[in-house]
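Data card: per-record layout.
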Amino acid sequence: MNEPGGPVAAVGAGPRAGGSGRLLVVDAQVQLGSELAIPRAFLEYQAANVYHRLTSYGHRTRPSRTLEHILALHQDDEADKLVAEMDEADVDQAFLVVPDFSEVARCRLSRPELAAWHDRVARRHPGRFHVFWGVDPRAGQDGVDLFERCVTEYGFAGLKLYPLCGYSPSDPRLDPYFEICAHHGLPVLTHTGPGWGPLDFSYGSPLLVDRAARDFPQVDFILGHGGVTHVDEATYLCAHRPNVHLDISQFHSVLAADGWQAHLNRLFRTGICHKILFGTCWPSYRLSESLSGLVGAFAPGSPAVAGLREAERRLLMGGNSLRLTGRRKPAGSTSEEPHRTPPRPDDGATTHRSGQT
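The structure for this 357-residue chain is written out next.
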């Protein structure tokens, strides 16, 4: 059996932990490019989108050929290619997120098998990954028990939510998970905005996180893609909830007439640079981008970070991510029970859209 806290103990101890004064880069959202972690139906939908785009611009190709390309890029079962790309791009560490698609798609591995596999990947590449384990409130007590095991035995670094699967990120059934996060000092990364086409995008509103953030002030919540879609809502929450943050993953696909660099530069000038995490959502864009190219676009003086102080750029590129993951409490430490703000009588434990308890 693995010793508790193995991967976490190794993070920052490897050869790429960063020397004194060197900018340390943390990608706050990557996934394992593997059919073990991503349902084939998800990849087939992505291939259909790529095919539609290519043919719309006059490129001649076949749907089967497009799918072959997508599948070929998702055979990195042990993250060897991902780590090689991180090395080339000078990315020191990354949040390796594991969305739970179990309730909406056919998956190759069961939840416990997938957790054990990501533990294996983290140990194969010590010091490189902070694993964020994905949960679904419909998993019941088995899901809560598995998350506890992921934290105490595997040393996973946080919780991942993918609400588009059909639940609010403030669903009361998630409270036991948030209590575990509060007890261990772990952040929660929740998807916002659109995603896999067949799912319900209405669950992607950042404001749906507000109840959970209010009731669990000791837990840090990160709005995945919050700097790209629903930006007004995301920055509103970040500005007024001390425990809410956002990442900029998928930034190069932002819908802005003057381009993603200008869009991000405006975001960085809103005064919340201490709340923003650099991220890419790699390897979703291997067909069209390189990780080193995306990271290089944030070099000093580049349009995206023009006018920012170096201290602010350092926070964006890694400092904020390390601060959030660095709040983890050592195994066996004694601490007070996690504080949870009791709901006011008129709040209730409302669910998305229906408003019923």
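Known properties of this structure: The chain is about 35% helix and 10% strand. The mean pLDDT is 87.

See the next section for split statistics.
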